[in-house]
Amino acid sequence: MKKNSSNSEKISENHIAGINRVVKLDIVVEGKSISHFKHFRLQQSARKHHYFELILANDSLGEVQNHNLEEAQQFLGKRLTVAFKYKDTENESPERTFVGVVTKVAFSQEKMSLGNMF
């Protein structure tokens, strides 16, 4: 019978010195799963607030967004949860979770692109 191992034991078991593992992100904003994103950045500090930036294509939320960001504006003040897992050990992968609050949404467009939301 296999013992259920804790997350900290899984982290220790899956550590490979000198190897950077490929990570899978599961991103959820207020119950809505974000399956397609361009970039995710997380900065954490012991002295300051944590900071995250999530960049999405203009149509990642289902409808094409423009500079008005009608659908994206609904995420302001909502909870964002990101689960980090190793891609190559999906079932036994240790999981780390970040929880934050969306404090800003914006739109950027460069050259001939359709635009990004962040």
TrEMBL record:
SUPFAM superfamilies reported for this sequence: Phage tail proteins
Entry superkingdom: Bacteria
Protein name: Uncharacterized protein
Organism: Chryseobacterium fistulae
Species lineage: Bacteria, Pseudomonadati, Bacteroidota, Flavobacteriia, Flavobacteriales
